[in-house]
Specification:
Layout (H helix, E strand, L loop, with lengths): L1 E2 L16 H4 L5 H25 L4 E5 L16 H4 L5 H14 L3 E5 L14 H16 L3
Parallel strand pairs: 1-2, 2-3
């Protein structure tokens, strides 16, 4: 299970697969959100590829929503937003539900652990291009 922001991805910028351009303007929440939405698509495509390479296994990308963790208490959010955060225990129940109910293959789940479908903003060719880029980057790590 990958916990990030399932279902909130966007089309990939094939000229910036390393997110170098996308991360430059990350000085505010809007810039961060742009980079994060592309990264969300990366996670979707990664799990889809893992599932194709490992038939019979289950891969889930989850978007649990706002969770009341110690880290959340350090972020400046309004009381109205904080009130919408679910407890760690409730989040855990939703994620366990997602894992126990997910079929073999790749799937994405929303805030309550329910399947939100795999309607991805990328073609098989884009997925292959991202995978090749990732292998190239990883092979360069010493």
């Amino acid at each position: 299970m990958a916990v990030f922001s399932a279902g909130q991805g966007k089309e990939l910028d094939l000229s910036d697969l390393g997110l170098k351009k996308a991360m430059k303007p990350v000085r505010d929440f809007a810039g961060f959100r742009t980079a994060a939405s592309q990264a969300s698509t990366y996670v979707d495509l990664m799990l889809k590829d893992y599932a194709a390479r490992n038939v019979g296994l289950t891969f889930v990308h989850a978007a649990p929503g706002l969770v009341d963790t110690p880290l959340l208490k350090k972020v400046s959010l309004t009381p109205e937003i904080l009130a919408t955060a679910k407890s760690i225990e409730v989040c855990g129940e939703h994620q366990l539900y997602a894992l126990l109910n997910a079929p073999a293959g790749a799937s994405r789940t929303g805030q309550d652990g329910d399947d939100i479908g795999m309607d991805l903003p990328a073609t098989e060719e884009v997925q292959r291009t991202l995978w090749e880029h990732t292998e190239e980057v990883i092979s360069g790590i010493e």
